[in-house]
């Protein structure tokens, strides 16, 4: 069959041959055994729902083996044999251009160059899934190939519930992931219900089909590192940034450090992903010996080099060794997947990678003990460095949260707050999110590098025109983004689809999108998919990350994220998503996102103007009501520009009256 015929086939009537387990790619670790015998039978029944009864005798032992061996039923047999990548949009079958753009984005999320565990349908973060099994993928792609612009596909945590009649201005796909009843959002609940095949962890842009490889976080990390050095009044040149993790998201750190101009040391325990990042050029050198690492860093500091070094080993050893050697660290953080601490997100010190994976599956209680011991050592080593002047920030990966639960010394004197700030709380929130600046993304659906180059030029021209009339309060944000977009091509940031990201406010996003749509209309470029990271002004309610600089007590509420996705859905988004979990863990955050296809039409022009304005200003309004000065400035400016916008502003109380 041709590629199009395979897509249109969906789940084949006759079972394909079993494929060999490919040991050359990065696989998800075995999930711990959590189902009892009756629940295992239920998991099998749930999986077999996708298949004609004539196949059940064949599939039952096969799926049972997967459940026992890997802790999940992935249906490896159904994995497509065609190459998985984002093809040009015209290569997809279908009646709806919008639906074809979604197929392209789904395949990008599962591209081997993009996905962390592609055969387990996991894009990043250790458990951030696009689907739970391959039957869901096949059925979803079939539905999208059949969809018209008068239908909407409903996605229940990876399961395509079906196509429903709607209308051309409705979203083509509505996605939910992990939307549990609140009392069932503990980590083991995910393990259980995911093993049963009834829910999944979508992370942020994994389960919403908007991941663009590590470029997505390179930009945000670059801004974070630059602003981190600004906070300590130091030029990045010759400065040392120490962190850990080289996975789907964390792998961006060394690349961002290089763009910022500092020395980056990033520890990683997984040799496969370390090798991948080195081959991609995201890290310059790999060092496996601590003494060699110390000498290399000392040389780099002396010469004021801009260099990224991966240490193949545990980050705790690095912090402790650098303390012993009195090697000064300017900035410190951590981006291991501590939202997922017991299933491969964080590894114990003093145990090999292979031993840890075995312990994780076969002795989970001991593994948990070792992880918590490591967290206590990790925090202690960091504290020694911060006492010498190191600026440490939590990178929103639940490091401080899990360290506190392990009994580590990470609490402030009041016993309520953490002793170190979240990077959003201290850097991104007050400097970017409060002013409406967040991670705006676009993907050239033609798949042509020349189209991406043209969109870079268009976006840069828009920003350079805007900066001439921008108020002083946002001049630095504008300058950073112009510098970023000018260097985007030479930094070779594309992995997978022809995509780009920059931080822009509502005005910038709208003007850039309008310019793209005009260029599409005039035949200068092909269609463009707009999106953003959920890690944005309005998309995410996360008390220890995105909304950590909300101080009116509402940071534990999730009204903003829910309103965001509802508002996007009727203002013109091509698809919308809302997830439980993402970045900081299951039960710790609610986050949402969107995708929007620009096709050069007047309808697309109307949709982008309506939706992008809301998508940003919803969050600014919430932040202004929390009495954030930058957000009050930004929403007042937005109301001056748009007479139909009327937002309730807070009154301030004299602190002396409260005393």
UniProtKB/TrEMBL annotation:
InterPro entries assigned to the protein according to its UniProt record, in alphabetical order: Urocanase (IPR055351), Urocanase-like (IPR023637), Urocanase_C (IPR035401), Urocanase_central_sf (IPR038364), Urocanase_CS (IPR023636), Urocanase_N (IPR035400), Urocanase_Rossmann-like (IPR035085), Urocanase_sf (IPR036190)
Required cofactor(s): NAD(+)
Record flagged with keyword Coiled coil: no
Family annotation (SUPFAM superfamilies): Urocanase (SSF111326)
Assigned EC number: 4.2.1.49
Cross-referenced Gene3D superfamilies: Urocanase like domains (3.40.50.10730), Urocanase superfamily (3.40.1770.10)
Catalytic class of the enzyme: lyase
Cofactor remark from the record: Binds 1 NAD(+) per subunit.
Catalytic activity, as annotated: 4-imidazolone-5-propanoate = trans-urocanate + H2O
Keyword Nuclease carried by entry: no
Pfam families linked to this entry: Urocanase (PF01175), Urocanase_C (PF17392), Urocanase_N (PF17391)
Sequence ranges assigned to domain Urocanase C-terminal in this UniProt record: 433-636
UniProt keywords, alphabetically: Cytoplasm, Histidine metabolism, Lyase, NAD
Subcellular location: Cytoplasm
Occurrences of domain Urocanase N-terminal (ranges): 84-210
Coiled-coil blocks: none
Recorded metabolic or biological pathway in which this protein acts: Amino-acid degradation; L-histidine degradation into L-glutamate; N-formimidoyl-L-glutamate from L-histidine: step 2/3
GO molecular function: urocanate hydratase activity
Binding positions (NAD(+)): 125-126, 203, 268, 395, 583
Urocanase Rossmann-like domain mapped to chain residues: 213-427
PANTHER family, alphabetized: UROCANATE HYDRATASE
Family under the similarity heading: Belongs to the urocanase family.
NCBIfam families assigned: PRK05414.1 (NF003820)
Function summary: Catalyzes the conversion of urocanate to 4-imidazolone-5-propionate.
Protein name, UniProt field: Urocanate hydratase
